[in-house]
Amino acid sequence: MRNRQIYRAVNNVRNKQIGAALSKQLRQKYQRRSIRIVKGDTVKILRGEYKGIDGKVTKISLEKNSIAVEGVQREKLKGGKIDLYIHSSNTVITSLNTEDNWRTKKLERKAKPEAKSKNNVKVNNKKENKK
């Protein structure tokens, strides 16, 4: 049933499925674990034949739920090159495309300021109550 839902998904749902994890540096900066991939983002491939390759995203295919990365191409028999599509879950975003002001403002707005964790505050209150 789940595979059928993914296969028959509407475009607005497929749009959300094309996401990838952020690198550790971006994760600390934006306090988010993953984000939707946009054309122009730089990604690193984690799985498959092209593992370890870094490149910019050149195309996004909602039909295939995949992305085309710069430098990942195959030669055709008649000559010329064709882009190979890689599933977005097999990549990590290493740098973001910041041309879209709305996207950057949204990321910065969602980033939580680093403050004291709630666990430390609760522990301190419990110790004071015991005295």
TrEMBL record:
Membrane is among the record's keywords: no
KOW domain boundaries: 36-63
Protein's GO biological process: translation
Basic and acidic residues bias locations: 107-117
Keywords: Ribonucleoprotein, Ribosomal protein, RNA-binding, rRNA-binding
Ribonucleoprotein found in the keyword field: yes
Pfam family, one: Ribosomal_L26
CDD domains per UniProt: KOW_RPL26
Any one GO CC term of the record: large ribosomal subunit
Family matches, as HAMAP family: Ribosomal_uL24_A
Function: Located at the polypeptide exit tunnel on the outside of the subunit. One of two assembly initiator proteins, it binds directly to the 5'-end of the 23S rRNA, where it nucleates assembly of the 50S subunit.
Identification of the protein by name: Large ribosomal subunit protein uL24
Lineage of producing organism: Archaea, Nitrososphaerota, environmental samples
